[in-house]
Write a structure and sequence with these properties.
Blueprint lengths: L3 H8 L8 E4 L7 H13 L3 E5 L18 H12 L4 E7 L2 E8 L9 E2 L2 E6 L2 E4 L2 H8 L10 E6 L1 H7 L2 H7 L8 H10 L3 E4 L2 E5 H7 L7 H4 L4 E5 L7 E6 L4 H15 L2 E6 L2 E6 L3 H13 L11 E4 L3 E7 L18 H9 L10 H10 L6 E5 L2 E7 L9 H17 L6 H8 L6 H13 L3 E3 L12 E3 L3
Parallel strand pairs: 1-2, 11-15
Antiparallel strand pairs: 2-4, 3-4, 5-6, 6-7, 8-10, 9-10, 11-12, 13-14, 15-16, 16-18, 17-18, 19-20
Length: 468
């Protein structure tokens, strides 16, 4: 039984999430929309849908008159979605609240409504991506990365195929004095397996530690590819190179190579000219790590790519995003947990943060145009742009920068203001009106919203991401 105290605890959650959804529904709520939310929440592990509570800030109880007959609505839900949802009425002092207790889907299956598989995306619903459905339907089966790629190997062959020396260096541990101890550690990490017929290397072990990815047929096409163009289009390729080593043992080499290919810009400081690279090194490192870790390994014929132009760099990986792109800065969800864990332990990435917040921070520090995050043709794409003056930024550039700055401030437990956005663009105090217009554009685009806790003062106005 849900108590008033429990409802008040849910209301204090910093934001809605996959297991918790609020709807105002003062007078009524569309049944079709109710069925859709039941399906979406069930597909994401189950949770609660509450009617009669404002989903804005503050999250006040407004009461609801929807669905007076609880038995009838429970039966309707079952008939339309095919699973049982318990419905409960709670007499909150501020109004009637309905709580829908939505169960989780079963392992290896997903619910749909009239053939449409649904999941939540921010505060709305969307159709499940193909890679997400594949992952669900393959639950209970060995993950792609845990399957064997080479079997019936001797100890010497394993050592020849995998760069075990660099593996221990990345873990900051001394290299074992015996070959058996080396192999025991790889077995303990579930990168290889031992049986009566010899050793078997898992795909994950090869993906991370291969001296030559070409030695592993299913892995070779996963090698990161770097293409350098002359100019701003794909028509003139200067260099096309594919990585050969495993992701972990070859990561620093990939980063160094990409950084060495970045165009340089000449700037004048105190009468002295010096050259700076197109992009900050930290941003390049974080985005390459993300592309390797968050790719969809079940997609064939695709690999992580870095494309370098004279005015930008595009980094992409196979698979549609597992998070809405607007939540890249504050959110985290790993598609490949074991891959992420091992690369974190080898100091290549941070498992609990996508690194995008640090990328945006580095971009702001260098006053570059805001990065673009998107998805196209079964790929997740990030574009980092080279230097461009404020006057040369178009409306989309400025609005995107405003939203990312606002989200970054939220992640840092701060709030965006007109002044902080002016500083982000490197503008003087006299440009307040221009920045105010950018903020208005971002509000109209439903990317940010005023912080109501700051009151009505325009001078001291603060802003939050729309989802905060």
């Amino acid at each position: 039984m849900t108590t008033v105290a429990q409802i008040d605890l849910w209301r204090q959650e910093p934001s809605e999430h996959q297991q918790l959804e609020f709807k105002e529904a003062k007078n009524q709520y569309e049944r079709r929309k109710l069925y859709e939310y039941c399906v979406a929440i069930a597909n994401e592990g189950g949770g609660k849908l509450l009617l009669g509570i404002a989903n804005g800030s503050p999250r006040t109880v407004v009461g609801t008159k929807a669905f007076v007959n609880l038995v009838s609505i429970a039966e309707d839900i079952f008939q339309n979605v095919g699973f049982r949802v318990d419905v409960e009425e709670v007499g909150h002092p501020d109004g009637r609240v309905l709580v829908f207790h939505i169960p989780s889907r079963m392992q290896g299956s997903a619910y749909h409504l009239d053939g449409k598989y649904l999941m939540r995306s921010g505060s709305s619903l969307t159709a499940m991506s193909e890679d997400r459905l594949r992952a669900i339907f393959s639950e209970g089966q060995p993950h792609w990365a845990e399957q064997f790629t080479r079997q019936e190997l001797t100890a010497e062959q394993v050592i020849t195929l995998l760069d075990t020396q660099t593996f221990f260096e990345l873990l900051k541990q001394p290299y074992p004095t015996t070959q058996d101890a080396v192999l025991e550690r790889l077995v303990a990490e579930h990168l290889i397996d031992e049986s009566a017929s010899g050793y078997a290397i898992r795909r994950l072990g090869a993906l991370l530690l291969a001296k030559r990815l070409s030695e592993f047929p299913e892995i070779a096409r996963r090698a990161p590819r770097v293409i350098v163009y002359n100019g701003i289009s794909k028509t003139d390729v200067r260099l096309d190179q594919t990585g050969e080593r495993g992701y972990a043992v070859g990561f620093q080499g990939i980063v160094d190579f990409v950084v060495s290919q970045l165009p340089q810009n000449e700037i004048l400081e105190q009468s002295l000219r010096r050259k700076i690279r197109l992009l900050p090194d930290d941003a390049v490192r974080e985005l390459i790590a993300n592309a390797l870790i968050h790719q969809d390994l079940t997609l064939t014929g695709m690999s992580p790519m870095v494309e370098i132009y004279s005015n930008r760099i595009e980094i992409s990986n196979p698979g549609m995003p597992v998070l809405p792109v607007e939540r890249f800065i504050d959110g985290y969800q790993s598609r490949n947990e074991r891959l992420a864990d091992l690369m974190r332990r080898m100091s290549i990435c941070e498992e609990r943060s996508s690194g995008v917040d640090r990328v945006v921070m580095a971009v702001e520090m260098h006053q570059l145009p805001a990065p673009y995050f998107g998805a196209i043709h079964q790929r997740t794409l990030v574009t980092i742009y080279g230097p461009r003056s404020f006057d040369d930024m178009d409306r989309d550039d400025r609005t995107r920068a405003c939203y990312q700055h606002c989200a970054l401030k939220w992640v840092m437990s701060e709030r965006m203001t007109n002044q902080s956005l002016r500083e982000r663009f490197g503008l003087p105090d006299g440009k307040q009106a221009i920045v105010s217009q950018i903020i208005k554009d971002a509000i109209d685009a439903k990317l940010i919203k005023p912080d109501e806790s700051a009151g009505d003062s325009r001078r001291y106005a603060r802003y939050l991401p729309i989802w905060a």
